[in-house]
TrEMBL record:
Coiled coil: none annotated. A divalent metal cation binds at residues 21-22, 113. It comes from Petrimonas mucosa. The lineage of its organism: Bacteria, Pseudomonadati, Bacteroidota, Bacteroidia, Bacteroidales. GO terms for biological process: DNA replication, removal of RNA primer; mismatch repair. SUPFAM superfamilies: Ribonuclease H-like (SSF53098). HAMAP family: RNase_HII_B. This is Ribonuclease HII. Pfam families: RNase_HII. Signal peptide: none annotated. Keywords: Cytoplasm, Endonuclease, Hydrolase, Manganese, Metal-binding, Nuclease. It is an enzyme of class 3 (hydrolase). Belongs to the RNase HII family.
Amino acid sequence: MREHAPLQPWMFPDRIEAGCDEVGRGCLAGPVFAAAVILPPHFRCDALNDSKQLTGKMRRELRPLIERHALSYAVASCTPEEIDEMNILWASVAAMHKALAGLKILPDHILIDGNRFRPFREIPHTCVVKGDGKYMSIAAASVLAKSHRDEYMERLHREFPQYGWDHNKGYPTAAHRKAIRQYGITPHHRKSFQLTERQLKLEF
């Protein structure tokens, strides 16, 4: 893992701030997961970073540390059916709302990874592009969302081993698309997504 700049502990030090992030937007199968995390004011962890920059082993080690030290945290998801019904963007926001609703402490301010969000209970929020690499609470949320979703997809893999979800976690790898062509789709696939490659040329 490459060196990264130290993450900021908060945007507004005088407020109870929740970081929020989602995982799984680009997948062909499985739910989209989101997490919300409120860290204590003096929390520091040099290893914490955007979950995509961490190995699976590092995420597994960080998860109990985050869960142990957080003032409050919650993880939630939206199903493939919800994704197909409302589209992946708003399903991701809905999952974040569910996670925020699961917090035992109501935050004064919400930090959102990305650039789109719908207000939650009239609590002020700030969208931060690539915020999971800038703020500790968002990075912590990304680690929880990613680790929980990976575990979920590994459980689904035991029921549908032909799709390789223990490795690809539902993302559109060549092997995953090939399995869809060979075996069809499952109830866990997102029917509104392009599940196989578009035909690039006519066969004669």
